[in-house]
Specification:
This protein has about 170 residues and is of the alpha/beta class. It contains 6 helices and 7 strands; from the N terminus they run E-H-E-H-E-H-E-H-H-E-E-E-H. The strands form 3 sheets. It has a 3-stranded parallel sheet with strand order 1-2-3, covered by helices on one side. A two-stranded parallel ribbon has the order 4-7. Strands 5-6 form a two-stranded antiparallel ribbon. The two termini are about 25 Å apart. Pfam families: Bac_luciferase. This is Luciferase-like domain-containing protein.
Length: about 170
């Protein structure tokens, strides 16, 4: 029995969006599963604007940040952005979160910690599923959560990170 292998490509977030869209359309036309958009705020175009543009230019391609991080955007902002882009491409969006090395190093910060990743992933998943979350004593809920399964994955290396990914990520 032969199993299908889904292959995605990471696209250069440094390209101007009008130049990147034909490449993303070519990736879809070539039969690839997905396109990952680099997320590093001083090196690339905004990942969620780019994903929205790509969603409007494609019909089957899965789109995802490759990868976002737990500190340059609050978890509520990440959940809102992911849900908004998912409205443009229902069932074709997923989120991948990592420590954000390049995002951190370009602004003089250290990469995200495993504790930050755990909290961000749990919070995002709760918000995306329509649940209320406690933000330092203030309850918050994503008012337009669709309740669809939007996968939240974790980029991980090392035994503790891999264990955490198995615990909290899809």
């Amino acid at each position: 029995m032969t199993q299908k292998v889904d292959i995605s490509l990471r696209v250069p977030g440094t390209m101007p969006i009008p130049e990147l869209m034909p490449l993303i359309q070519d990736i879809e036309a070539a039969g690839f599963y997905g396109a990952g958009i680099l997320d590093s705020q001083l090196l690339c175009r905004d990942v969620f604007v780019t994903m929205g543009a790509a969603a409007a230019q494609t019909s089957q391609l899965t789109l995802f940040p490759a990868v976002t991080n737990p500190f340059s955007r609050h978890s509520s902002v990440l959940a809102s952005a992911m849900q908004t882009v998912e409205e443009l491409a229902p069932g074709r969006i997923k989120c991948i979160i990592g420590t954000g090395y390049t995002s951190a190093s370009t602004i003089g910060r250290k990469p995200g910690t495993l504790a930050q990743m755990r909290n961000t992933i749990r919070t995002m998943k709760a918000l995306l599923s329509g649940q209320s979350v406690d933000f330092q004593g203030t309850p918050g809920r994503l008012g337009f959560a669709a309740g669809r399964d939007l996968p939240v994955l974790m980029a991980a290396s090392g035994p503790k990170a891999i264990e955490l990914a198995g615990e909290v990520a899809d």
